[in-house]
Amino acid sequence: MIILYPWVWLLILPFYFLRRLFKNRSDALLFPRARLLEIAPSHAKIQEILLFSTLALLLLALSRPILIHKANTLEKSADSWVFLIDTSASMAHPQGEGSRLEKAKTLLETLLREHTKGSVSIVIFGERAMTLVPLSRDIPSIIAFLHTLKAKEAGKATALYDAIFEGISTLSSRSLEHPKLFLLSDGLENASKSSLEELLRALKSRSIPLYPLLLEPEDASLELERLARESGGALIYPQEPSSWAALLEILRPHPSQTSLTQGVELYIYPLFFSLLSLLGWLYWVYRPRLDSLWSKGVPWRF
What we know:
Blueprint: E1 2-3, H1 12-21, H2 44-62, E2 65-77, E3 80-86, E4 94-95, E5 98-99, H3 100-115, E6 119-125, E7 129-136, H4 139-146, H5 160-172, E8 179-184, H6 196-206, E9 210-212, H7 222-231, H8 241-250, E10 255-265, H9 268-295
Parallel strand pairs: 3-6, 3-8, 8-9
Antiparallel strand pairs: 1-2, 2-10, 4-5, 6-7
Helix pairs in contact: 2-9, 3-4, 5-6, 6-7
């Protein structure tokens, strides 16, 4: 059994000292006619026992005792990833059986279904960047959002730096372990309000690595290579077996343990017995008055 709020028991100290201070006074409280602290000499010990039993049981109920009957330790990934998806006009260009955007969505869906165990956020960008899905572990819902993405949804240009800043903001909004940014884009920066140097300082100061996932080898640029290198990330071309293996290693989850405890609340039992003890105490407090009324033939009432 555990006690959730053991500090509640400290409340018994002021009550004890006040009880000792006003032990023989009937006007110790704000309601003197109630005579709540009056003690009948012949039954003082019984009243004391019942009074403190009532208080002790009430404090036990307020301290929230819980009987533990099951404790489990769960393991879940502590990773937090933000995927930045380019939806600019260039992503609508055909490539193979579909567009570049469709290729990016297929790659991301594969990663989410087979290799993602942590929290994921989706940021899309064109002329502007916006968070489509905040950090979530609901992978099926995130995949459903992916299917709705269309080219030019966020404008025709490519605000690549602003998108990375949006991802940094998502990962910096709370204390997270193992944050990472993954970029899926085929274009060069041409619409951001922030500069490359500002972006590099932000990535370094927050220790967030950036991993550009190249749809084609020619999508690599000096800016992307510098961003990846100086942030602690790397350029990844998933079509190459060695690069794909490196990506899977990057996506390898970092498990964290969470304790899950199940128990039964027991506060109702001491609360019930404290009520019984209180009724007993009231009976002994008012017993002289009742005896006086009964001896005069007055019906039992207050």
